[in-house]
Design goal:
- It is built from 4 helices and 11 strands, in the order H-H-E-E-E-E-H-E-E-E-E-E-E-E-H.
- By secondary structure, the chain is mainly beta.
- Strand 10 and strand 11 form a beta hairpin.
- The radius of gyration is 18 Å and the shape is globular.
- 42% of the residues are buried.
Length: 298
């Protein structure tokens, strides 16, 4: 089903509190005026499970201090050409105690890694690695901008390293017909032991629909014929079978300079199913990575 891919189109607001360095997303509407001019979307986002708690920026979500030695911090940080220090994320480890020890992957608008700890929401072995605040606002390392013909686009707020990890997430449900507006991605609940999708087993469990959520990865464009992707999805899913929420990991394939678009390949069936012509999306202000002789098709 081509509904396993998604069109990037929604209008959502995420409001966050300045005293905890929450970021404020733009009011977003992508591709609707270009691809679906007759569609009117609801504007009220669904609430994120769990109340958003005010916590000290030096504390985790449970109020406990998050400790890290200066030496360890210096060793693990990456300083970008923009002068922003980015803390690299590590994949969550699966185990008996991991669900209570996942640090939020998101960064602030100034490049500070969120210190809140994320706990299991629906009994999953490892939760979506965003705290409730960043589920609603999105990673501050990214921003949604206006695009001259596509409506909206997702770009790097500052230089990002290769293998930077981000999460597409949404509410699990059925796939709509492809003649309707959709941004959903197929969902395959992870194995409880490995946390990965079982490639040789059909575990399809509906789609993850970001409509009404605070997800901003839905605004990442598909590269055009002369462009290539600079991020891709992995086989890392989060959630449980028949649960309410689910997530899918994306990872950058190369360093992404400030204001460069984040792009991933939708697949050829996405375009043909909708009768939409694939176009280059890069602009002078917000470029997309160009194809080279050695680059893949996407």
């Amino acid at each position: 089903s081509t509904c396993g891919q998604h069109i990037l189109c929604w209008d959502t607001e995420a409001r966050i509190r300045a005293d905890t360095q929450y970021e404020t997303c733009l009011s977003l509407l992508l591709f609707s005026s270009f691809y679906y001019p007759n569609i009117t979307m609801a504007r009220t986002p669904k609430s994120v499970p769990g109340a958003l708690k005010r916590v000290n920026k030096k504390e985790g979500g449970d109020g406990k201090k998050v400790k890290q030695s200066n030496a360890a911090t210096r060793k693990s940080t990456t300083t970008t050409s923009s002068g922003v220090v980015v803390l690299p994320q590590r994949p969550p480890a699966y185990g008996s105690r991991c669900a209570d020890s996942v640090q939020c992957w998101a960064h602030s608008m100034t490049g500070t890694r969120c210190t809140r700890m994320v706990k299991s929401r629906e009994g999953e072995p490892v939760p979506i690695p965003y705290c409730d605040a960043h589920l609603e606002s999105g990673d501050g390392a990214l921003k949604v901008v206006n695009h001259p013909f596509a409506g909206k686009a997702l770009v790097a707020r500052y230089d990002l390293p290769a293998k930077y990890r981000i999460v597409f997430w949404g509410n699990r449900g059925r796939c709509d017909d492809c003649n309707k507006e959709d941004r959903a991605i197929s969902y395959y609940p992870p194995d409880k032991e490995t946390g990965r999708r079982k490639e040789d087993v059909d575990t399809y469990n509906g789609v993850l629909n970001p409509a009404g959520s605070g997800d901003i990865i839905q605004y990442a464009a598909c590269p055009g014929p002369n462009e290539r992707q600079n991020m891709r999805s992995t086989s890392q899913y989060w959630g449980v079978r028949n649960g309410n929420l689910g997530g899918l990991e994306f990872i950058t394939l190369e360093p992404v300079p400030k204001d460069t678009q984040l792009c991933h390949w939708y697949g050829p069936g996405w375009w043909s199913a909708r009768g939409v012509k694939r176009m280059d999306v890069g602009t002078k202000k917000y470029p997309a990575p160009l194809r080279t002789a050695k680059s893949d098709k996407a």
